[in-house]
Amino acid sequence: MVSSDKTAGEIYSRQIMMKEIGEAGQQTLANASVLVVGCGGLGASALCYLTAMGIGRLGLCDGDTVALSNLNRQLLYTMDDIGKPKAETAKKRLLAYNPYLKTTVYDCFFDDELAGTAVPAYDIAVDCTDNFDARFILNDACVAAGKPFVHAGIAEFCGQLLTVTPGKGPCLRCLFPKGREKRESKAPFGAVGVTPGVLGALQALEVMKYLLGLPVSNEGLVIYDGLNMCLEKVALSASPDCICNTNR
Hints:
Elements: H1 5-11, H2 13-16, H3 22-30, E1 33-37, H4 41-53, E2 57-61, H5 86-97, E3 102-106, H6 112-118, E4 124-127, H7 132-145, E5 149-155, E6 158-164, H8 172-175, H9 194-211, E7 220-225, E8 230-235
Parallel strand pairs: 1-2, 1-4, 2-3, 4-5
Antiparallel strand pairs: 5-6, 6-7, 7-8
C-alpha cells in the first residue's frame, strides 16, 4: 500500500480496524485515483486528507500561484512559497507526507480540453474551484464520462456540498439550471480559514465513502453554517429538464 505491508499496516491501522474499511478497503483506496481541480482553500484541505487516508494516485490541477492572501486558509503553503505554482508546490508538500504517492500535475486552469482528457482517467473528481465556469466544465465532463465528483463551495462562515453520481441523482445543472448568474461577482469574498478546511475535509470523506461503496450525499445539498454551528441537508432531485439529462 505504501512501502511495505508492515508500514502500511501501521500508518493506516486506525482505518483498517474499522469494519467499514478493513484491509480490503484500504487496498481499494490504494488502488484509487482522484482528480482534484483547484489547489486553494478547499483543495489544500481535501488533498491533505486524501493523501493521509491512502489514496494511491492524485491529479492536481491549478494554474494559479501562491499569494500572501492565501495563507489564512491554504495550509499546504508557507511564506517561502509566495509566487510559486500552487499545483507543483502542493505536490512537493504531499510527497513529504507520503513519498510513494503517485501524482500528476496540471499546472494550468481547468478548461474543456483538459476536462475531456483528464476526467475519464480518474475514478472520481473533487470540485475545489472558486468560479462557476470551471464548476460547470467539470460537471459536464463528469456527467458525460459517467464519473462522480464531489462539489463544494464556501463563503465567509458558510459552505455547501453535493456529491454528483451521474444517473443516480442531481448534478450542478439541476441545482443551477440557468448556469452562472450574470450578477455573479468575480471580486474576492471573505472567508475564515476554517470554512474551506471543514468543507475540504468533508469532500475527502465523501470520496472515501464513494470508493468504499458507502452512502454519499448525492440526493441533497449539505449546508454548513459555521457561525451558528449547524449542518443541514436540503433535498434535491435530478431535473428532467437538465441539459445534462441526455447523458444520464
